[in-house]
Amino acid sequence: MPATEIHNWGKDIFSNPEVIVKPETVEEIQAVMRDRQRYPSPVRAVGSNHSTTACGVAEGGTLVDMRKMNKILSIDADTITTQAGTLYIDAALALERQGKQLFVNVELGNLSMGSACTGGTKDASMPGEVGQVCSYAMRIKMVSPSGELIEFDESDPKALQYARSSYGLFGIVYEVTFKVQKLRPMKIYHEGYTLEAFIQRLPELTARDESMMFYFFPHEDRIMVEYRAYQDGDRFSRRWVWKVRNWVWKSFAPTYGWFVSKYVPWRGLRYWLVDTLNKIVRWVQCGMLHGERTSPTAQMIRYPETSGRSKYTFSIWAFPEEEYPAILRDYFAFCKDYYRKTHWRCDMLNVGYRIAEDRGSLFSYSYSGKVMTLDPVATGAHGWDEFLRAYNDYCVKRGGVPLFNQTKWILPEQACQAFDGRIAEFREQVERYDPEQRMLNQYFRERVFQDCPASTGEA
Ligand SMILES: Cc1cc2nc3c(=O)[nH]c(=O)nc-3n(C[C@H](O)[C@H](O)[C@H](O)COP(=O)(O)OP(=O)(O)OC[C@H]3O[C@@H](n4cnc5c(N)ncnc54)[C@H](O)[C@@H]3O)c2cc1C
Predict the structure, then answer these.
(1) Residue 454 forms part of a structural domain
(2) Which of 10, 72, 186, 200 is most buried, judged by most C-beta within 10 A?
(3) Is residue 453 part of a domain?
(4) In the 8-state DSSP scheme, what is residue 56?
(5) How far is the CA of 405 from the centre of ligand 1 (A)?
(6) How far does the centroid of ligand 1 lie from the alpha carbon of residue 53, in Å?
(7) What is the pLDDT of residue 183?
(8) Whose CA is nearest to atom 12 of ligand 1?
(9) Which stretch of DSSP H or E encloses residue 127?
(10) Boundary of a domain, candidates 125, 147, 182
(11) CB of 45 closer than 6 A to ligand 1?
(12) Does the Cβ of 307 fall within 6 Å of ligand 1?
């Protein structure tokens, strides 16, 4: 009989493992790997279980909850080493106290370091940097599926590239070292545009050479951009800017979305309320939420361990930057058309990120060049899953690339289309590190252990 039902943070992905283990030492993980009777396969590690796909599901197997292995082991001049269950925000705050910072300050502070170094993440790239956390992992230590200790580092860049995309399929990460840098003040400001003005001005806006996160409002043909850039010096101010911005994200906007979806049955009124809040948010962000010298660490959010009424969810696909203007215009039309046909639309907003070319990991979604993403965000109310299936279909047909842990409902054939020859390359590596398929769950079996149609060229 399964031990218990586990769900992800969003409470929409369920796992029924036979055994749940919460190791505090490496030896305990080794014991799990070696004892197949007591700890059945698949063995899946999880950190904070914030993923929106079944990547961490251990149906009938062994779930290894890494959250008790949360020690920061060392901070050196330009690295931090932690156990795999350490939260990203805890690492960032410890670094900040020493005048240092992580390279990619993703909004999700609850991201565990084990997931951060082996899975997909996104944040708008800062000038001269990439936007995927795993690319800054320089040493990853794992317990292999047979219980041995294995290590990946910069002495073998190809193996490290594979490990950074391994999602626990090569073994369980117990320790990781990330590169860090000096803490620098960060400028932040917002600007709003109509869709057409944004598309026309895009070359000029990207030439500013500042990081760009997008807030999209397809039903109003509006866009807001959050710009960020590092500044010189050691003086910091206006932490409250991030506090206000993050409170809206973490609590107010999702609770409001939940409320209107649940209690306002007339869709005209419901979405008028959603649009009105979005107008106010744009007005406040463009008019008040700016700062010349904020701390980059302050942008991270520590979400509650268990989600409540303020929970929200999202999905993501990435597109080549040069094709993005046409895709964006088309996406706004797609959202309106979907609403006309089904009367369903997101009860929050859509976002997107501009992310630099990055071959740090095999499944990098910006492997072939700079990308911009399209990420619908909603409370997950009735109709969300059906919308995502249509959105996935829309995105893959336009050459989109998904993330295995953040793009819900990707079909095996869509993974093939997006990653092309990289699926077969990765499968070879999984077979090498885990010949007996101890770590392989159904989700990855379907997406990685398939024969994709003949290669169509570099994805
Ligand atoms: C509200 C919310 C906001 C978010 N915001 C962002 C954001 O701003 N930027 C962003 O990039 N992402 C964001 N995400 C997505 C999130 O970063 C990813 O889903 C990430 O994988 C979650 O980390 P986790 O520790 O919860 O991983 P989990 O969901 O626990 O695991 C993810 C994968 O990693 C594997 N894994 C976990 N730990 C280990 C380990 N020790 N060894 C081997 N494999 C392991 C799991 O098996 C699984 O395949 C957000 C998610 C939510 C719900």
Answers:
(1) no
(2) 186
(3) no
(4) G
(5) 7
(6) 10
(7) 98
(8) 121
(9) none
(10) 182
(11) yes
(12) no
The domain boundary residue, chosen from 163, 182, 201: 182
Q: In whole angstroms, what is the distance from residue 241 CA to residue 251 CA? A: 15
Q: What digits encode the pLDDT tens for the residues 265-276?
A: 999 999 999 999
Is the link from the previous residue into 40 a cis peptide, with omega within 30 of 0?
A: no
In a domain, 457, yes or no: no
Whether ligand 1 lies within 6 angstroms of the CB of 42 is answered as: no
Mean pLDDT of 71-77: 97
252/265 same-domain check: yes
Ligand 1 centre and the CA of 252: distance in Å? 23
pLDDT in tens, 216-267: 999 999 999 999 999 999 999 999 999 999 999 999 999 999 999 999 999 9
> What is the pLDDT, as a whole number, of residue 2?
55
End-to-end CA separation in angstroms for the chain: 43
Distance, in Å, from the CA atom of 157 to the CA atom of 299, rounded to the nearest integer, reads 31
| Model confidence pLDDT, tens digit, residues 33-51 | 999 999 999 999 999 999 9
Q: What is the pLDDT of residue 406?
A: 98
Read off the CATH number of the domain in which 41 is found.
Answer: 3.30.43.10
Is the shortest distance between the CB of 10 and ligand 1 below 6 Å? yes
Q: Do residues 80 and 173 share a domain?
A: yes
Domain hosting 430: range is 414-448
Helices (H), 182-252: 195-206, 239-247
Is the CB of residue 51 below 6 angstroms from any atom belonging to ligand 1? yes
CB-ligand 1 contact for 173 (6 Å cutoff): yes
Is the same domain home to 267 and 319?
yes
Residue 44, φ and ψ in degrees, nearest 5: -125, 130
Q: Is residue 388 part of a domain?
A: yes
